[in-house]
């Protein structure tokens, strides 16, 4: 028997949504009207939207069917118990607190356990995670391994946290560290995975210093797949089994179900501590809702419960990770510098390397995102000096990297869409010398990338 090499989408399409084609002139005008910030574009003016993989996935027919089973009872909804069971089977945590999305879980956790002057270590904090710590007048400290900061270096687990640095931090300033976090996969660092060995080492350090260890688990299934592929002794385990071990090494997690929950909205906060859970539920009732719905409809809870089962299926993860890698291989083969190896949910173009004539504080990431939109109607996102450059004291500093992320929504685009994206990126790369930087005309003090207005230089 001859084995097949083509990895196909493990689904067929039951319902389609038309995309709108625009001319280059229309896109240039739309970008101008959006003050050169693609966050301010109308979605209809985007042909292929790679802004985020968050909440943009396609649900399965089983999930749509589950929506009709949603129980909208205010307190004690049947859908909550189904959701709680699905999350508990996967994570093993004692307390499962639904929230309307990941940042609500972050806000509730950090507002409850972080004091002014505290330090929260992580491999890399995502922007909302960082902002929810800084708003408590605490510090969000990134401790990713050194190889995680070298875009072109190919290593299997570039999302790992530097365990020596973590140990030193806890030895020196342990009293000001309320908890240790690790983000799987490491979104701000290129969608790179964290190994089981690294998670086990963090567990051991946290035991030694008696610190709670929380996962930012948004992309836990993609991380589990990378462990299966890349870590010694893990090949024969199911992704679900690996994911269960990842969660059992931790004391709790924050989760955005908009990623590996395969849902359009939702999230949760989960933990073993009775004391923290009681305080978190009090804040939940104040800002999100009663503990058996937490800002979600009963049907959302159903969709997440089902999504958490589908996301660890092997045919899905094999297709998912391969389709991201496929885009990475195509653009890298044409000489476009990307974070290597390709991440789980996205390709990250190294905009600083691609546009060396644009200084970091002239925002090469914004320049590239905007050029790609005008060229082809493809929308990516800057992860660089606009997103991370503004310091809590109001000064500005270049971020460690200036990246453009092309995030791939789950189960939405086919291989020909991805081929088109690769063609667009390569076309922009060919005329890179003509691309100019930007200056900020106005921007808010917190999470400025969402609403900043730019001017071309
Ligand atoms: N943590 C990580 C690692 C994330 O990637 C996100 C969201 C969050 C937390 C917050 O979750 O959006 O449900 O409130 N990331 C999206 C993105 C927005 O585009 O990467 P949320």
Describe this protein with a few key phrases.
five-stranded mixed sheet, single chain, binds ligand F0G, 457 residues, 40% helix, 16 helices, 12% strand, 14 strands, globular, alpha/beta, three-stranded antiparallel sheet
Descriptive notes:
With 457 residues, the protein is of the alpha/beta class. It has helices at 24-33, 61-67, 78-91, 102-113, 127-134, 163-173, 196-209, 220-230, 239-248, 274-287, 298-310, 314-333, 351-354, 364-376, 385-388, 415-430, and strands at 48-49, 95-99, 119-122, 139-142, 180-183, 213-216, 252-256, 267-271, 346-350, 378-379, 381-383, 403-407, 438-442, 453-456. The chain contains 16 helices and 14 strands. Strand 3, helix 5 and strand 4 form a beta-alpha-beta unit. It is globular and about 60 Å long.
| Tally of DSSP helical segments | 16
Q: What overall form do the CA principal axes indicate? A: globular
Major pleated sheet: 5 strands, mixed
Helix content: 25-40%
- Distinct small molecules: ligand F0G
- The end-to-end distance, rounded to whole angstroms, is 60 Å
Strand order of the largest sheet: 2-8-7-6-5
What pattern of helices and strands is seen along the backbone?
Answer: HEHHEHEHEHEHEHHEEHHHEHHEEHEHEE
Which value, in Å, is the CA radius of gyration? 21 Å
Per DSSP E runs of 2 or more residues, the count of β-strands stands at: 14
Mean pLDDT: 97
Strand content: 5-15%
Detail the poorly predicted runs.
none
Specify the structural class: alpha/beta
Write the layout of secondary structure elements.
Blueprint: H1 24-33, E1 48-49, H2 61-67, H3 78-91, E2 95-99, H4 102-113, E3 119-122, H5 127-134, E4 139-142, H6 163-173, E5 180-183, H7 196-209, E6 213-216, H8 220-230, H9 239-248, E7 252-256, E8 267-271, H10 274-287, H11 298-310, H12 314-333, E9 346-350, H13 351-354, H14 364-376, E10 378-379, E11 381-383, H15 385-388, E12 403-407, H16 415-430, E13 438-442, E14 453-456
Helix pairs in contact: 1-14, 2-11, 3-11, 4-5, 4-10, 6-7, 8-9, 8-12, 12-16, 14-16
The structure holds ligand F0G.
């Amino acid at each position: 028997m001859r084995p097949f090499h083509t990895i196909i989408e493990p689904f067929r399409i039951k319902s389609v949504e038309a995309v709108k084609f625009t001319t280059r002139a229309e896109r240039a005008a739309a970008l101008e009207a959006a003050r050169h910030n693609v966050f301010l574009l109308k979605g209809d003016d985007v042909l292929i939207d790679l802004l985020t993989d968050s909440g943009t996935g396609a649900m399965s027919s089983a999930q749509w069917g589950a929506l009709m089973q949603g129980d909208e009872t205010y307190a004690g909804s049947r859908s909550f118990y189904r959701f709680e069971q699905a999350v508990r089977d996967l994570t093993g945590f004692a307390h499962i607190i639904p929230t309307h999305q990941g940042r609500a879980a972050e806000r509730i956790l950090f507002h409850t356990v972080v004091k002014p002057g505290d330090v929260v270590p992580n491999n890399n904090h995502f922007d909302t995670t960082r902002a929810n710590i800084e708003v408590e007048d605490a510090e969000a400290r990134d401790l990713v391994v050194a190889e995680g900061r070298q875009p072109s270096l190919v290593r299997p687990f570039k999302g790992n946290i530097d365990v020596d640095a973590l140990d030193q931090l806890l030895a020196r300033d342990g009293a000001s560290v309320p908890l240790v976090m690790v983000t799987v996969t490491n979104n701000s660092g290129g969608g790179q995975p964290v190994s089981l060995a690294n998670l086990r080492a963090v567990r051991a350090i946290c035991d030694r210093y008696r610190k709670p260890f929380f996962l930012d688990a948004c992309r836990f299934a993609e991380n589990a797949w990378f462990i299966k592929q890349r870590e010694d002794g893990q090949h024969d385990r199911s992704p679900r089994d690996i994911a269960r071990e990842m969660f059992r090494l931790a004391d709790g997690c924050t989760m955005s179900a908009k990623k590996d929950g395969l849902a359009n909205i939702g999230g949760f906060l989960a933990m073993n501590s009775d004391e923290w859970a009681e305080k978190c539920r009090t804040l939940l009732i104040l800002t999100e809702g009663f503990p058996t719905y937490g800002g979600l409809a009963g049907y959302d809870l159903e969709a997440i419960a089902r999504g958490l089962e589908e996301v660890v299926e092997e045919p899905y993860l094999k297709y998912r990770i391969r389709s991201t890698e496929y885009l990475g291989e195509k653009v890298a083969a044409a000489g476009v510098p990307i974070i290597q190896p390709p991440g789980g949910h996205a390709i990250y173009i190294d905009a600083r390397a691609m546009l060396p004539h644009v200084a970091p504080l002239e925002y090469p990431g914004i320049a590239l995102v905007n050029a790609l939109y005008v060229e082809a109607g493809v929308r990516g996102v800057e992860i660089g000096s606009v997103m991370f450059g503004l310091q809590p004291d109001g000064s500005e500093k270049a971020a460690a990297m200036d990246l453009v992320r092309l995030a791939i929504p789950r189960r939405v685009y086919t291989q020909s869409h991805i081929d088109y994206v690769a063609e667009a990126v390569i076309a922009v790369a060919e005329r890179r010398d003509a691309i100019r930087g930007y200056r900020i005309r106005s921007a808010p003090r917190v999470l400025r990338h969402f609403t900043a207005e730019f001017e071309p230089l």
